[in-house]
Specification:
The complex is a heterodimer.
Chain A: H1 2-86, H2 100-104, H3 108-114, H4 120-174, H5 178-203, H6 211-225, H7 229-242, H8 247-261, H9 265-268, H10 277-292, H11 297-309, H12 313-326, H13 331-343, H14 347-360, H15 368-387, H16 389-410, E1 425-434, E2 437-460, E3 474-490, E4 499-506, E5 509-517
Antiparallel strand pairs in A: 1-2, 2-3, 2-4, 4-5
Chain B: H1 2-12, H2 17-27, H3 39-124, H4 128-151, H5 161-165, H6 176-189, H7 199-235, H8 240-266
The chains are: A alpha+beta, B mainly alpha.
């Protein structure tokens, strides 16, 4: 009986096995064809990655060239202007006249006519646009290239998973019993999963930025740099019409909107509109840019700045922290953070942040850049003094400390006594802003040898507004004995100051503060 | 029994593959198309599977081979782009230097004009000697300015010869666009200039090669479809009509892949 049963059972198992074998063979073939299909997608992605990588590198080289050329021409412009400005002071040899102006009546105004404009300004703008366009294009292409690279890797991963499916199904050909069906079923399941996964990858978008978006953004950036803010906003609008998910266009528009509302900010750090509709729109643009790409440093900085001037000091410090997380080597960020911390009452933290900024500047030499940094921080402190009574005292303390530091730094002193000399005095007289010029008379007398004199000018565009400290309104000098200097400095302003102020320091100690009249009525 | 007899005959046959199939068909005249195919037919199908696989692999080999050429073209394109852009930077820097020198040249001419006016004033006042000295200085200044501008290449060395001997009373014009074009021509025409650089041509070649790689992959895919059809035919060997139909379609796919691949992208 046993033998008979066995004889009956074995053919039955064999029949089942034979039924499964063709299915396995078919499944194997299907998996191979599926794998080949996915391999084609992988090859396509790889081809596009290779082509985009090459073009990205080439555009990077072109962008570098455009930036070098633009910088060269931008550097040429002030040199040509300087040569033109110097023309009246040239001295013809042998005639006995002091200068060309004296010899030929050549004034600075007529000198401009004598030396032709070579069209450098126009050329500089064109080159700046070209450099910006290529830089933006390179960044956009790099993003596309990285995505194609990811896609190629994703397809390779799917092929690897498919190989597992292939193995399991093939395993069903050589084993017997229940494991055979299990291996086959598992293989088919994994194969279906791989097919679905590949299909999902196929429909994932590849980021690409249309040329009109890049060109609009580049144009807007150049127009912003040349203070043509309304046209810049229009250019950014066009860029966003072409691609409403393009983060650089939002950042650029945010910056242009802020500067349109505060046109003197780049030169004087004067904030005349801290919370108007234009500023709200600028904040929205920065936030949108960060939604699209949270690594845009400028967007964090703009948010920190607008929050500070809107009185949202916690938000300002948080945004500054986000920016610092991206790049901790920018002193401006530490100064802005320090101002926010001081305004919210953390004087110690504010001092620590200021120290961090100073550490970053330790190995530098006095320059326009360091002056701009100091003027920016002094303007923050002046804003706090005006708008936050609780922190005003600490702000004044930090202001005087910074002036002393800047004096020591600029005059290359090892130390300053930070107290007025025992003898002598210095005063400011006839301070006023008139006919587009700041005028004042600085006198000193009986000062000991090597007294450090610091003069810091401030201006404000509204009578109830905060002072700002323009970078150009600063004088640091070693003086002694008696002296007098009449200063007349043209101030090119979109919003004329209604008040001007001068703080006078001797050896790092504030000895006098004078205010003077400006424009009769606010113009902004 | 019939099946066993056929198998035996097929196993013993030493004729051609085609002959074997014909023999099998003759054996099944009565059962015709619903009968299973013979072992030799199955061997033939297995051979076709192998052939299609090897051909697809050949396409893969060719794609890999030309792929390395595409990588070479990429490198050439980048390298030539660097050379071209470097030359543009050099021209821009030279042009900026020349513009700077030109402004100094113009300033000297303005000074010389002032000296001439001074000479006229002195002459009118009766100081003929002083006036002559002022005029002489003006001439010397123009000469010096012209030579310095020429040395700096502001006007191009070859065109300045006459001016160096006798500078003009009025300054020469300077057009940075025209000078930029001239510098470009000078650079490309000089004996040590690089060969005709055309990075776009290399880039286009790389793109073209990668198009071929993509094309070969697609033709190879057709062959793998043929493999699939052959496999199904092998599995469905119990029904001759289905087997032959599948083999026929598979052959069509294979032929399309072979002819398409060889005539478009392989060579």
């Amino acid at each position: 009986m046993d033998g008979t049963t066995q004889e009956q059972t074995e053919p039955s198992a064999s029949v089942t096995s034979d039924r499964l074998t063709p299915k396995i063979a078919l499944t194997l073939a299907c998996l191979v064809v599926l794998g080949a299909g996915i391999a084609i997608l992988q090859v396509d992605a790889s081809i596009k990655e290779s082509n985009t990588a090459r073009e990205t590198t080439r555009v990077a080289v072109q962008a570098m060239r455009a930036n070098v050329v633009a910088t060269t021409v931008a550097g040429l412009e002030p040199q040509l202007e300087a040569e033109r400005d110097f023309l009246p002071f040239r001295r013809p040899f042998g005639t006995g006249t002091a200068t060309l102006a004296a010899a030929a009546g050549l004034s600075p105004a007529t000198a401009v006519e004598q030396i032709p404009d070579l069209g450098v300004d126009q050329l500089r703008r064109r080159l700046a646009f070209d450099a910006e366009r290529l830089s933006l294009k390179q960044r956009a292409m790099a993003t596309t290239r990285v995505t194609w690279n990811d896609r190629s890797t994703q397809y390779t991963t799917v092929i690897a998973v498919l190989a597992v499916a292939l193995f399991l199904v093939g395993f069903g050909l050589v084993v017997e019993g229940s494991i055979r069906r299990s291996a086959y079923a598992l293989g088919v399941g994994i194969g279906l999963f791989a097919a679905g996964w590949a299909a999902w990858f196929y429909f994932l978008p590849i980021p690409s930025t249309p040329d009109p978006a890049i060109e609009g953004t580049a144009r807007g950036t150049v127009l912003t740099e040349t203070a043509n803010y309304a046209a810049a906003i229009t250019a950014f609008d066009r860029a966003l019409d072409a691609d409403d998910g393009y983060a650089p266009a939002y950042v650029g528009r945010s910056r242009a909107r802020l500067l349109a509302a505060n046109p003197d900010y780049p030169t004087t750090r004067a904030v005349t509109d801290a919370s108007g509709r234009a500023v709200d729109a600028a904040v929205e643009d920065s936030q949108r840019a960060l939604e699209l790409d949270d690594r845009v440093l400028v967007a964090h900085v703009l948010l920190a700045l607008t929050s500070f001037y809107a009185g949202a000091y916690d938000d300002s410090v948080a945004a500054a922290d986000d920016a610092i997380e991206l790049n901790a080597r920018v002193p401006d960020l530490w100064l802005l953070r320090s101002a926010g911390q001081l305004a919210r009452g953390d004087a110690e933290d504010a001092t620590a942040s200021l120290e961090r900024a100073l550490v970053l500047l330790r190995d530098t030499v006095p320059s326009q850049q360091t002056r701009l940094l100091a003027s920016t921080y002094l303007s923050y402190l002046a804003w706090i003094e005006r708008h936050d009574e609780a922190a005003a005292r600490d702000a004044a303390r930090l202001r005087d400390r910074l002036v002393a530091l800047e004096t020591r730094f600029t005059l290359d002193r090892d130390a300053l006594p930070i107290r007025a000399p025992a003898t002598g005095s210095a005063t400011v007289q006839q301070l006023r802003f008139t006919d587009g010029k700041l005028e004042l008379e600085l006198t000193w007398r009986d000062l000991p040898e090597g007294t450090a004199l610091s003069v810091l000018g401030y201006e404000r565009q509204r009578r109830d507004g905060a002072w700002s400290q323009p970078a150009q309104l600063a004088l640091f000098a070693d003086v002694s004995g008696r002296g007098r200097r009449a200063i007349s400095l043209p101030l090119d302003r979109a919003c004329a100051p209604v008040d001007v102020r001068v703080d006078l320091y001797l050896d790092g100690a504030r000895v006098d503060t004078q205010t003077g009249p400006g424009a009769p009525a606010p113009s902004c | 029994m019939k099946h066993q007899r056929i198998s035996r005959r097929e196993r013993s046959s030493s004729g051609s593959l085609l002959a074997t199939v014909s023999e099998g068909e003759r054996e099944h005249d009565d059962g015709a198309w619903s009968a299973p195919v013979g072992t030799r037919t199955r061997w033939a199908i297995a051979f076709l599977i192998g052939l299609a696989t090897v051909t697809a692999a050949g396409y893969g080999w060719r794609a890999a081979q030309i792929g390395s050429t595409a990588a070479y073209d990429d490198r050439q394109s980048i390298s030539e782009t660097i050379a071209v852009e470097q030359a543009r930077v050099e021209r821009a820097v030279a042009l900026a230097d020349q513009a700077r020198e030109y402004v100094r040249y113009r300033a000297d001419y303005v000074t010389a004009a002032a000296l001439d006016r001074e000479a006229a004033r002195l002459a009118a006042a009766g100081s003929a000697r002083a006036a002559a000295a002022a005029r002489a200085e003006a001439r010397q200044l123009r000469l010096g300015a012209t030579r310095r501008a020429a040395e700096a290449g502001v006007f191009g060395r070859a065109t300045i010869g006459s001016d160096q001997l006798m500078p003009t009373e009025t300054p020469r014009p300077f057009d940075y666009r025209a000078r930029g074009r001239a510098l470009e021509i000078e650079a490309s025409a000089s004996i040590d200039s690089p060969a005709n650089l055309d990075p776009d041509r290399w880039a286009a070649e790389a793109v073209s090669i990668r198009d071929r790689i993509g094309g070969l992959a697609r033709w190879a895919f057709l062959m793998l479809v043929a493999v699939l059809l052959y496999t199904v035919a092998e599995v469905a060997a119990s029904r001759r009509s289905v087997t032959y139909a599948l083999v026929g379609v598979g052959l069509a796919f294979y032929t399309a892949g072979l002819v398409g691949g060889l005539t478009t992208y392989f060579f």
